[in-house]
Each structure stands twice: as structure tokens, then as C-alpha cells.
Amino acid sequence: MERDYQQVKKAAQLSDEQFAALVYGVILASGGSQGQALAAAGSAGMIKRKIASASGEELAALASSLDPKITESILQALKTKEGQGG
What we know:
mainly alpha
């Protein structure tokens, strides 16, 4: 979980534009609608602030409450961004 925690924290360091694109992609990949993805991407700044201030325990609790498909989508999107130098 520590590596996953570090990836999530690293995502919070992306530019607002990059983070919004990441959020949009994760929502779509996890089965969300385009409207949901656009709404979430529009809240990217707030989401970044919450991630940046969250502890490892808080992120772990959130991850355990999510559908495993969503968690996997998030981790896959983060790994893809990391591989692109993002």
C-alpha cells in the first residue's frame, strides 16, 4: 500500500490541467458517465488539495471503501501517467 500511497500523493503534484485529465480518465475507466467525469474534472483543484493533506491511513480507508474496479482504475491511470513522465 505504501507504493500506492506514494503514487496518489505524486498525482497531487501534477499541474491542474494534468490532474483534471487524470481524474476525467479514471472516472470514465471506472464506468462513470461523461457528465460525471466532467464534473469531477471540474473539481480537480479541490480533490488535489484533499489528497495532498490526507494521511496514508485516510487514503487506505478511502481505497478500502471503493469498488475494487475503481481502485484498480485509479492505480492503473497513475502508473500510466508515471510512465509518461507525468
